[in-house]
Structures are given as structure tokens and as C-alpha cells.
Task: structure prediction
Amino acid sequence: MSYAGKVLRVNLTTGDNRVEKLNEKWAHDYFGGKGLGIKYLYEELAPGVDPLSPDNKMILMTGPFTGTTVPVSGKLGIITKSPATGTVLDCSIGGHFAGELKFAGYDAVILEGKATNPSYLYIEDGLVEMRSAADLWGRGAQDTEVALRAKLSPEIKVLAIGPAGENLVTMSCITSELYRQAARGGVGAVMGSKNLKAVAVRGSGSISVPDISNFVATVKEIMRTDTLTDTNLWAFTDGTPMLMDLSQNTGILPTRNFQEGTFTAFENLNSDSLKKVRAGKKGCLSCALGCGNYSKTGRAAVEGPEYETLAIGGSNCGIEDLEGIIKFNDLCDNLGIDTISAGNVTAFAMELTEKGVKDFGLRFGDTAGYLQVPELIARRAGIGADLALGVKKLAQQYGGGEFAMHVKGLEFPGYEPRGSWGMGLAYATSDRGACHLRAWPVAEEAYGERDPFTIDGKAQLVMDMQHYNAVKFSLILCDFWALSLETMAQMLSAALGRSINEEDLRQAGERVVNLARQFNVREGFGKGEDILPERIFKETLKTGATAGKLLPREEFDNMLKEYYALRGWDENGRPSAQTLSKLGIV
Ligand code: SF4
Result:
């Protein structure tokens, strides 16, 4: 089996650690990453725990493919309870940390408690130490990583937070390799609440598989026929900025805090414009797609920006200037802030200012003001003290709830649900709040062949996509590889030495979705929280392919009702005892 078979548990309060055997039954049912991490958290975390208290846990989770030659498998899962939403939270982060952790001999690290003083965790095979981070506290996430590499080894792999995480900002992220992030839900603030500035790992071991010849032959063939194909190579040639043109043409490009679905200056921010300033390429461990693109223009440079930053930090703030967005991206990365949430809260503050609800001194399209925001949020200084609250709490404080673009406290990604009705259901039912990585029906609706302005078949579509993504994120395969469940099953069978088929994986995905839901139900979530902002139901869009469109509330309610019924959940969105039993959850 390709597991290390060991879990490292670290008590940050006492500095003690111990190695435990990986729970084989749970690994059998949930594989790794998202699923296995949520299983551990569900079993170990009492309901009602304050996410920023020492009682919350943070789990660094690898998967059965981590450290092997399975393509596009280099990411790490990070699982905790979100301080932004109060829901379960799983993020994935690219780079090389996950492989290094597995080479050090661990499938997972469970972080508990709170260090007495600012610290970092050092792991080198069997050596596990809490070390002082007094000289790192207050520094940027990128600066911290550079400093640790200089001090420890250029080969060390690091997860780090910036000042935003230290200051418990609930849109703070964790950074690795300077520009890779576990971005959403305030995962950086959980690390900050534990006085944990960084985790540094070095490993010298290797991964075993039951039949190396079969494994190598299987992976090699899949790489040839299923990875390096036209379906996936967009990630290498263009990366996510190619979505700018698609979103503009289909009228789903968030603009001026989701007031419009098209942006007049979109060509400044699209893939062609990014290619003109491209300055290098980068990829994660075992990834042949290598989607990372460095961009450099004027005095700004960054790895990225990705579509989400271009859309939410660009058109959604009315910013026409690519150099400004690149600078915004780089500031957020070093300060340790999620660009999606930061872009949204900036746009929301711009609209509150525009409408005279509350003057934050921010205007749509004003790049100079916009570039002040990340530092202010990270330090909770000036208007940053308010903006650091995030869109939901800012609306609670000052008003504007009907155009506060979030679900459960997590701000919207870059796809307008009025032009892709299934996306509305996907946002509403995602386990961590508004998220495009739980289901992405926009691929078949606005970008594809299905009618985006109907609810017909959308409940089934969203449910199927959620199952697919849940198992993919449990195997920790990057979402940029469009592979089938059959291909996943072939690789997993070769890695684990037991026969696994498509139906096993589909059911595992369903199990993970229901366990995540059960976690949230236990925390008090239900139908009342599976809702979209009023703007989506009441305001029509004005331009482009979505002119005159909204998502009627009644249609949304019917879609949600159908979704609950398909899932075997009750009318309040709670999984029935029969559903949980069928999936082996209780
Ligand atoms: S496609 Fe990009 S994000 Fe995904 S694993 Fe490869 S380099 Fe990393």
C-alpha cells in the first residue's frame, strides 16, 4: 500500500508529540485528503468548539498518491473548522510540501492546542521539534519561507502564515513556495490562533507500492493517454486566465460587486494580456501540467494572477489595470490573505461607499485606494479593522446585506449564478460556503451546452459533480486534471493492491459529502443557511449574454428541494438516518 501508515500528533501546548498508526478502516473508506481529514476531525472535534480556540485542530493530510509518480498528485489537504463560516473547512495547497511530509514518514499531522509563544514546527523524519519563531513573527509569509530556507536548508518545504493569520483575520491563508495557497475560510487564522508561524519539513524516505512494475506501467500509460492531452494542456499553455474571455462572452464575469456580468476592460486582464507579461513557469510535485505562470509588468511580479484574482480582484473591483492586480495579488500572498475574499470585501466596501451607506473612501476603478486595502486588512488598521470582518459581518455592522455576496460567510468566487443557475445551487450547498471547487456546473452551463437559465437537471448535475470532486480531493488530485472515475480507479487499484472500481469511488464521494454535511448539521447548519444573497433573486443583470436575467427565488427553492430529495436529506437539509447508514457513516 502506498500509505506511510503513520500519523504524527503534535500537542502545541506542551510541545509533546507522538506517532500513531493510521486508522486503516477510515483510510479504506475515505482514502486521504479531504475525506480522511474530515473523518478525523469529525471524530475528534466536539461540536461548538470556537475555531480560534486551542480546542480546534488542524490536520495536514496527504493521500495514497502523494509522493508517487501519479500525475498531478502533489497537493496537500488541510482540514479544520473554519473561523469564517463555522463549518468544516478543507483546503488544498500545491507545491512540494505534501510529498516531503510523506517522505518524512507521515500520512498526516494533527496539530492540537496552542503554543505558549510564537513558534514553528520542524519535522525531519523522526525528529519533531517546536522551535521559536520570535524572529519571524510579524513578517510576511513569503519572507518567512525565505528566512527558514536560508536558516535550515534550501531543500526544506514550508507552510507559513503572514501578519493576517497572526492577527486572526478570518480571510487569511497559508502559503507555500511563495505563491501557493490554502486560501479559503481563514485557515491561516487557525494557525495564527495556535501561535504557529510555520511548519517546515524534510524527509528522506520513499513510498512503497505492492507491485512496482504494474504501478509504473499503469501510471505511464495513463500519463500518455489521459494527462498530456488537449483536454488538459490548457493548464500549461494558458492557465486559468483563459476563463476571462469565456466569462465575458457568457455574461458571468463578476463586475462591480456583482452588479454586472461583463466588464468593458476585460481584454486588459485576459490570457492574451497575461502571456505578454509572462516571465516563467512552475509546477507542483509530480505535475506534468505545470500551470504556474509568473507574470511581471512594471514594478509588479507574481506567480499568477489566476482567474479568480483577475475576476474578483479585477473586474469586480472595477480595476482595469493589470499591473495593479498583479501588485494586489503579490501583496495578498505575502501578507497571507485570500485574494477572493479580499477582492469581495473591497468591492462590497466600494458599493457601500457608492450607495452612501458607509464611506470607506474606496471607489470602483481606483487602483491606488484598492492597493492600500491588503495591508490595512492584515494589520486591522484604519478601514482594515472593518474590512477584516469579511463581507457577511461587514453587512451586519453597516447594512447592505442584500448585496453582500457570500454564502455562510464565505465570499463568492468568480462566476455569476444569474448566468449559470446550477452554480447558484453549488454555492448554496457547498460544505464550506460559496465555493467553485465543490461543484463547477458552469462548465456545462454557461461554458458548455446545457441551458444555464433552467433548473431542469441541475440538482442531479450538482450532486454528481460534488461526489466527483469529493473523491478527487480525497485522492488529492488537482482539479485541473479532467480525468474519469475509471482512470482514478485504475491508479488507485495499482497503488493499494486491491481492486477498486468506479462505483466504489462514486460512493466514497457521496460518503464524504454526507459526512461533511453531518459535521455542519451538528454545528447547527441547515436549510436556512443554504441560501444566496437577495441580489441574485431580485436584481437583473444589465449587459451581455445575461442582460435581463436573474435567478427567480421560487426556481432556486424548487432546485434545492429536488437536491435534498435526491440526496436522501430531509426538508431541512439533514441527512436521514437511512442515508447515513447506507453510507456507513453511523
Ligand atoms: S495543474 Fe497546477 S496547481 Fe495543479 S498540480 Fe499541476 S502545477 Fe499544481
Remarks:
- The pocket of iron/sulfur cluster is lined by residues 72, 74, 94, 235, 283-284, 287, 289-292, 478, 480 (CB under 6 Å).
- The chain has 24 helices and 17 strands.
- Residues 493 and 499 are 5 Å apart (CA to CA).
